[in-house]
Amino acid sequence: MLPDGNGLDILCELRARRNPVGVIIISAKGALDDKVKGLEIGADDYLAKPFHLAELSMRIYAVIRRREFSANNILQQNDIRIDLLDKSVTVGGVPVILTRSEYNLLLFFLGNKNRVISKSAMAEHLSGEMADMMDSHDFVYTHIKNLKAKLAKAGCKDCIKNVYGTGYKWIE
Questions:
Q1: Could you give the CA distance from residue 128 to residue 131 in angstroms, rounded to a whole number?
Q2: What is the location of CATH 3.40.50.2300 in the chain?
Q3: The pTM is what?
Q4: pLDDT in tens, 97-107
Q5: Which of 11, 58, 91, 169 has the fewest CB atoms within 10 Å, i.e. is most exposed?
């Protein structure tokens, strides 16, 4: 029921191209047949209107958790332990207090282990579509510097590497 097409057709095309992107269908159609059809085609979840934003938020979180973190609420990477529900981080049992941006950046790194991530990709992850309107992405460097310092202080050194002229990489 999109203005210029059918969302199920778009989903079929995504899956035909083997695109693994997570999809939650949000629809005014709440009949069981509609839900079953959307899930059969390849949606990860189906949410009928009206709904509470808290429910949508948790469904998005569940899709990300399943796709990026093997369905676990606790992530363990060497000495780093992240409780996704509490949004808490410890290194070797020592609590690490992170800002929301630093926490999101840490999750982004862990979801992209051993891949080089560009500064612009991190800027978009942290600020959404607003990243395109910014004159510079220097704020990304600041968040990375602060995250590295906090992790190092807790005993996790050299996990984020600068790949000169390209971006940054999480090293296991």
A1: 6
A2: 7-68
A3: 0.64
A4: 999 999 989 98
A5: 58
